[in-house]
Amino acid sequence: MAATGMTLYEQKHAFTFVVSEDSDGAGYLSRDTFIAEGGANGVDFLVGEIFAVVDGKVAKLDPAATDGSERFAGIAGYRARVPAGQTLEFVGINRHATVRGSDLTWPVGVSAADKAEIIVQMDAALIKIR
């Protein structure tokens, strides 16, 4: 019997937003390992989500903030679900890469001016959006 009224969605696969990246010969030059904390409520980063780093820990990028979370630090390569009170290491792109703009996840409610500023910060890290 066939299911009716059902729609299936395939999630983004790890690093599918990357068009090209640099290698230093021993590994991926464009990638780094980051630490995320779940905080009081847990946190979820999606493949291709742009994030910040505050006090050495990954944070949701917030262009309106003044605590460091307004600055681009990287793009999540994997989906990272961090339960409340726990930490997780995950890998992201933070330099020397070309990425597919249509596969990036921008901060909720980002304005055109804020997006332009984030793109300038990405450009400074040698990350080009296509």
Enumerate how many helices there are, as a single number.
1
Number of structural units classed as domains = 1
CATH class: Mainly Beta
| Assigned CATH superfamily | Head decoration protein D
Task: Give the proportion of residues in helices.
Answer: 10-25%
For the biggest sheet, the summary is: 5 strands, antiparallel
Structural class: mainly beta
Q: Could you please say which CATH topology applies here?
A: Virus Head Decoration Protein, Chain: A
Distance between the termini: 44 Å
Overall spatial form: globular
Spans of at least 5 consecutive residues whose pLDDT stays below 50 are none
The spatial strand order of the largest sheet comes to 2-8-6-4-5
Order of helices and strands: EEEEEEEEEHE
Alpha carbon gyration radius: 16 Å
pLDDT average, as an integer?
90
Proportion of β residues? 25-35%
Q: How many beta-strand segments?
A: 10
| CATH architecture label | Beta Barrel
